[in-house]
Specification:
The complex is a heterodimer. Chain A is mostly beta strands. Chain A has strands spanning 3-7, 10-12, 18-25, 34-39, 45-51, 58-60, 68-73, 78-83, 92-99, 107-110, 114-118. The chains are: A mainly beta, B mainly beta. At the A-B interface, strand 5 and strand 10 of A face strand 3, strand 7 and strand 8 of B.
Chain lengths: 120, 108
């Protein structure tokens, strides 16, 4: 069974940093691309970042570029999202999602999310 | 950057058919995926590559895509279908994933 479990969220002050983790299981991790998607309270889904099977192949949403870094650990089946210079508007549930059905395919599997709250 | 436009809300009576549009320039040339998000739960994929259904999704869910509009159709709507629905594409020019703004489906 495919499982994605996010962790690392919490309360952080403006300007602070946080690293989110996504632990994957139930499939061959190195064969798949991963994404982070966030949802601010009462708002819609917003794509944040993606990482391909080649860990150098990454993309970021323009709204976060320069403040976020995605990475993966194929040995321990983990995907990371490093968030820096956090602002109040970064408060959101952050979801880890796995592509399915080929490159740039649908996000077929999602974790339950990790809540990040940016407040002083 | 590419934009997908959805109506904020759609209402439908139980047993009727709900259609949720997703507009975008020449969206018919792209592959559209649809997600259902119930309150307090993570999104789940309900339609992929315009009209395919993942295992476990009822046949009542269907999709189409042509011209400037993709559409998610839910037949014989049930109370349990009440949720937010999002369309999504991959924008080749920016290499970014793009979501529509989401549509809240209310079952009357």
């Amino acid at each position: 069974e495919v499982q994605l479990v996010e962790s690392g969220g919490g309360l952080v002050k403006p300007g602070g940093s946080l690293r989110l983790s996504c632990a994957a299981s139930g499939f061959t991790f190195s064969n798949y691309n991963f994404h982070w998607v966030r949802q601010a309270p009462g708002k819609g889904l917003e794509w944040v970042s993606s990482i391909r099977t080649d860990p150098k192949n990454v993309d970021y949403a323009d709204s976060l570029k320069g403040r976020v870094t995605i990475s993966r650990d194929n040995t321990n089946n983990l995907v990371y999202l490093q968030l820096n210079s956090l602002r109040a508007e970064d408060t959101a549930m952050y979801y880890c999602a796995r592509e399915s059905g080929g490159s740039r395919g649908p996000l077929g599997y999602w974790g339950q999310g990790s809540l990040v709250t940016v407040s002083s | 950057s590419y934009v997908l436009t959805q109506p904020p809300s759609v209402s439908v009576a139980p047993g009727k058919t709900a259609s949720i549009p997703c507009g975008g320039v020449n969206v018919g040339t792209k592959s559209v995926h649809w997600y259902q998000e119930r309150p307090g739960q993570a999104p789940i994929l309900v339609i992929f590559y315009d009209s395919d259904r993942p295992a476990g999704i009822p046949e009542r869910f269907s999709g189409s895509n042509s011209g400037n509009t993709a559409t998610l159709t839910i037949s014989r709507v049930e109370a349990g279908d009440e949720a937010d629905y999002y369309c999504q594409v991959w924008d080749r020019s920016s290499n970014h994933v793009v979501f529509g703004g989401g549509t809240k489906l209310t079952v009357l």
